[in-house]
Amino acid sequence: MGAILELEKITKTYKKGENEVHALAGIDLSIDGGEFLAIVGPSGSGKTTLLNIIGCLDSPTSGSVYYDGKLLGGMKENELSDYRKQHISFIFQSYNLIPVLTVRENVELPLVIDQKMKKAEIRARCNEVIVAVGLKGMEERFPRELSGGQEQRVAIARALVKEPFIVLADEPTANLDSHTAVEIVDIMREINRTKNATFIFSTHDVLVQKHARRVLTIRDGLVHADERK
Amino acid sequence: MGTLFKIAWRNVWRHGKRTLLTVITMAFGLGLYIAMDSLLKGMDKGGLKNIVELTDSSVRISTKDYEEERRSSPLDYGLTDLPALETFILKDPRVVAVTVRTRFIGQLSNGIDGIPVSVVALDPEKDGKVYSLKDYVEGSWFGQEGGAQVPASSTAGTTATSATFGRSIVLGRGLAEDLGLRIGDWVVLSARTRYESQNADDFLISGLVDSSEPAINASGVFVSLADAEDFLDLEGLRTEMSVRMKARTNLKDSMAESDDLAERIRNGFPGLEAKSFGEVGRQFLEIAKMKSKGAGVIILVILLISGVGIANTILMSVYSRVREIGVLRAFGLKPKEITRLFLIEGGIIGLIGSLGGVAFGLLIVTYFVKVGLSIDFMGREMAGGMPIWGTLYGEWNPGQMVVAAIFGVVVSLFASRSPARKAGRLEVTNALRFV
Q1: Local structure of B177: helix, strand or coil
Q2: Lowest-pLDDT choice from A112-116, B68-72, B166-170, B298-302
Q3: The pTM is what?
């Protein structure tokens, strides 16, 4: 499969008072569809900033991002929202489930926001991913009734429910114990394999890194190493 | 929209106590507004009823000269050719009865203190068919039984009557209390006769009026035309004629009919002035409207406080859900939709508050309509500015309830607007990082 994401000379500079912080200092990156890519590096190296730019949550100071050959620069806020709605899903470190919605409603949320599928289709797709992440029987529970691992499974199900997709995960296992972390990564890998979904995730966890097929190391806002297994 | 509503609805109850407090404040303010509106409407109705039944009748006729000097109640301008006028009026099928009155200025004394008073000389029999004063008299209405019950402690029922001792007088209860007088007591009434000579005589208090018209209670003095005739050398002089027309359920119809009759009288008798209930009533309603504006301001302040409460509730909701907003934005909700989400929350709070307010208002209004609110506790001095006295009954005003509910929702939406827009403007990355 060819590159679905291409980043050219991406820089990102934040202003903190009178000082400038260069979070990304010129990243060139090409990501193929179906990759299972881990972004690693020390704290403050620019992992989250890179994910935010790939996910159109943030815009680069300079450089270009192409999705499927289309330049994303210069899009307005509403266009970026539409882009995210159609192509990208997120898994967050703190799960970030909507506390007033049940497991099923949380998982259905991206499709409901998208407004393209009928209710019955949404329900069927939702059931499918809930089974895939091992949460069958918990559909009507609220996030407060779940463990951390279960919450992250819901977050994964929510991220996977729309297809096709790029899944961006920022430290998805950081709040989980090692056993649950491996379980979660296994689920992600399985879905990556069966659905050919592109996973891009940042992590500090060496155990999680071992499961990645490509590991991108970032230091001081630059690609330090790009290792394919 | 359905999902936004679902999220909004559940978030409204996520902090139940906070929401409930806001809703209660709003419901209280709106309920109070509805109750006050009902009382003001009741007051208007009572005031208009007083105009017809106690003070001005459907049409009040006098000469143009008399009307100009009406404040001094001169005995110089009597109605002429009364039989022709009466026949003309009674020909109108809408007319129920007519009566004549003569007003004059006098001095009432209990032997120690004297008070200047405006006295109405009337025909007890015919006056009772036009006005309802008799129904409010405790004691005797010039030899007839009064309408009000006489308390056991009252001196009424003594053998002293005008039939046995001469002239009798009926006083407003407030006036009698001011002079320390009771039924059966004697008072001295002095006045200038029609020929400007001073006359004074003892009058026996046969009854006290405690009506729904505060002015009559405070200063009303009534004598019979028979007694006034030789007391003032009237020689048949009558300064006013009052007309009672058939009651209509619709106020506008009632006013229009009185306007029409007054117009016909003015055209038929060019020297006469005819004041219709329509004219007097409209003036009364204008004044009442101005007075009710003050009450409206108070309610507006209460609603503004509710609005601040709602704005605060929504703002707190925004701050406690910044990450949630970030997630919704990350999954593709547009800023406008985030703003809409919080506006829906404000709208829900406003709607519940408004419905609660209407329910609360309905309860109070039901009580006011059925039981009424006794305004005696205010005391006669404080109630002086009120158009009615005794028990104030509420009036149903469904239209105003709907307006109040809509206004409540609009206030809520307006109050939610600023925090909702703030939520819509949050940067996604900042929102997701928010701790």
Answers
A1: helix
A2: B298-302
A3: 0.76
For A1, other C-beta atoms within 10 Å of its C-beta total 9
CATH number, domain at A27? 3.40.50.300
Q: Quote the domain boundaries for residue A206.
A: 3-228
- Please tell me the number of Cα atoms within 13 Å of B196 on its side-chain side: 1
- What's the first-to-final CA gap in chain A, in angstroms? 17
Query: Which segments of A3-146 does DSSP mark as H helices, in order?
Result: 47-54, 77-87, 103-114, 119-132
φ, ψ of residue A83 to 5 degrees: the values are -60, -45
Residue holding tokens 């607007």?
A: B417
Spell out which chain B residues touch chain A, with contact meaning CB-CB distance below 8 angstroms. Answer: 2-3, 6-7, 10-11, 14, 323-324, 326-336, 428-429, 432
Q: Residue B17: which region, alpha, beta or left (left: phi > 0; alpha: psi -120 to 50)?
A: alpha
Instruction: For strands A198-202 and B198-209, give the pairing.
Output: unpaired
State the Cα torsion B407-B412-B417-B418 to the nearest 10°: 120
| Lowest mean per-residue pLDDT among A97-111, B154-168, B181-195, B354-368 | B154-168
Total domains present in chain A: 1
Parallel, antiparallel, or unpaired: how do β-strands B198-209 and B186-192 relate? antiparallel
> With the C-alpha atoms ordered B27, B29, B30, B34, is the resulting torsion angle positive or negative?
positive
Q: Could you tell me how many CB contacts below 8 A there are between chain A and chain B?
A: 65
Rounded Cα distance between B205 and B184, Å, is 5
Q: Does position B243 have pLDDT exceeding 80, yes or no?
A: yes
- 3-class SS of residue B38: helix
SS3 call for B243: strand
Q: Which of B3, B324, B330 is the closest to A57 by Cβ?
A: B330
Closest Cβ–Cβ partner in A84, A100, A110 for B10: A100
Q: What angle do CA B200, B206, B210 make, to 5 degrees?
A: 110
Range A32-62 burial, b when 16+ CB lie within 10 A, else e: eeebbbbbbbeeebbbbbbbbbbbbbbbbee
Residue whose C-alpha is closest to residue B350's, from B320, B309, B302, B316: B309
- What distances in angstroms separate CA B310 from CA A99, B18, B79, B418, one per listed residue? 22, 10, 65, 11
**Rounded distance, CA A164 to CA A162, Å?**
6
Parse chain B into domains and list their residue ranges. 2-49+284-433, 57-277
Taking CA B101 as the corner, what is the angle to CA B192 and CA B71, rounded to the nearest 5 degrees?
A: 55
